[in-house]
Amino acid sequence: MKILIADDELNNRKLLRDYLKEYAHCDMVSDGKAALELFVADLEDGDPYNLVLLDIIMPVMDGQKTLTRMRAAEKKIAADAKETPVIMVTGMDSSLQAMEAYFKGGCSDYLTKPVTRQVLLDKLRKFNLIPDNSGEEA
After folding, report:
1. What percent of the chain is predicted at pLDDT more than 90?
2. Which domains are delineated in the chain?
3. Which H or E run includes 87?
């Protein structure tokens, strides 16, 4: 499995990658434009990401605009394929933006920072990306 992590804070990217390292290969980028470029390139190669973790507030291109463009690319490049789950990751002060991305932008779910390992793995289970019986502690 492979996951794209887009967050402008290096420590946030590393934390998410560390939580996920036993389950997936993680590509990490610091802005929405770079995330979109990787996402589209992998769609075009026929090897799309299994999951995208997308920060809302980033430089160059914010998460909402990135998400809108990702969904447009999916429709253009892989119209018959299932949408890639995109989880918006947000700080407490941008939870309204997360809800807007959820309802208008086509995101699959959202997480509020600070993200815990257990909550993140629960989201992966929700999307059937890891099994329910993975032996995680409560």
Report:
1. 63
2. 2-126 (3.40.50.2300)
3. strand 86-90
